[in-house]
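#lab-general

N.A. 3:47 PM
ok so I finally got the sequence cleaned up, no stray characters, all 185 residues accounted for. can someone with queue access submit it? mine expired

B.Y. 3:52 PM
send it over

N.A. 3:53 PM
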Amino acid sequence: MTTNTNTAATTGTTTTGATTTGAVTPAGTGGDTGGRTGRIDFAKAAPKVFRALVGFDAAAREGLDPALVELIQIRASHLNHCAYCLHMHTNDARKAGESEDRLHMVAVWREARHFFTPKEQAALALTEAVTRVADAGVPDDVYAEAAAHFDDAELGHVLALILTINTWNRVALSTAKRAGTDERR
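B.Y. 4:20 PM
back already:
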């Protein structure tokens, strides 16, 4: 079987045991796969799309505080139940110097506001609203609070970052990425 190791930065393939053909990985769930035995390697199956998404992600981060970037990505990954991205971004946050206390509090930030600045709280609220957009749209008060803490360019980048992490979460979940297999180098 071939194990998919594509990430937001690089791709690679690890082979263990018998090999399969094509860019597929072991299926995480049942269902009709059109005769395939696993999931696609998104980066190999749609390389131009993958590269465009990597570029969009990089552009979204420009000018934003790296700690804020990770908090946004962690919160969206919680909401989307994406263990692959949650593992990746909590590790990235640790490497960037984020405290364990804050990492543990991201999921319950509303009850632990004193761990986060008002600007971070506004970004987390906006992350939740955009991630759950089908539930109630993006409420005016949530948007207004974010707009009070970010200038237009920053707010555009925050929104773009929220969109990219939600896309990455969906890629990882759709292709059955396993937490702990981040092989970006």
